[in-house]
Amino acid sequence: NYIFRVSSTLEKATGKKHLVDNSPETCWISQQGLPQFIQLGFNSRVVPKRLSITFQGGFVGTRCAVYIPVEGSGTKDWQVLTTVYPEDVNRRQAFDLTPVQPELLSGGISALKLVFEDSSDFFGRITVYDLKLDGIPI
Known about the structure:
The chain is mainly β and 138 residues long. It has no helices and eight strands. The protein has strands spanning 2-6, 28-29, 36-55, 61-69, 78-84, 92-96, 109-119, 127-137.
């Protein structure tokens, strides 16, 4: 179970609830402008292993920094876990979340933030049909 926050939503019909509804017909669409983000909060600590995400081609976050909270800061301060580079395609893409510093995940994390720093869309919009995070509960 996740608690979601997003940077923006184009309209109510394309809200954040569609990120995990398992429907290929619904999606989250951001407003224009970069960066955009999706933030996940967890009910218990987890060690994230793999991120799977399905974009709409033409509206892909082509550079995505994956952030985790700085220990002891709640979700006030963030540090980079890794960066992934999705392709501009419509199919599901999966990324192993290999940290730049392995010790960052030793005690698990309480939240994760995906920050889309670049977009294949000229206006900086991002469209996500499906988002899944695999990990190990602590």
